[in-house]
Amino acid sequence: MQKSLITIGLLLAAAGLLWPWLGKIPLGRLPGDIVIDKPGFKVFFPVTTMIIVSVVLSLLSWLLRK
Predict the structure, then answer these.
(1) Nearest to residue 46, comparing CAs of 35, 38, 57?
(2) Containing domain of residue 50, as a range?
């Protein structure tokens, strides 16, 4: 458990440091992501992005188990 928490913390710190470059990746602005933008109200549903992230994480976990 300790190693997992340390790893997660290091990954979050690395993501924080790399955020200016990670923000340029077009995830979150893909076709299929739903945006409702009205004056004073904005809702964002990243449907396509979450499907892609889920598939990638599933593949990574499957590969790491083997």
Answers:
(1) 35
(2) 2-65
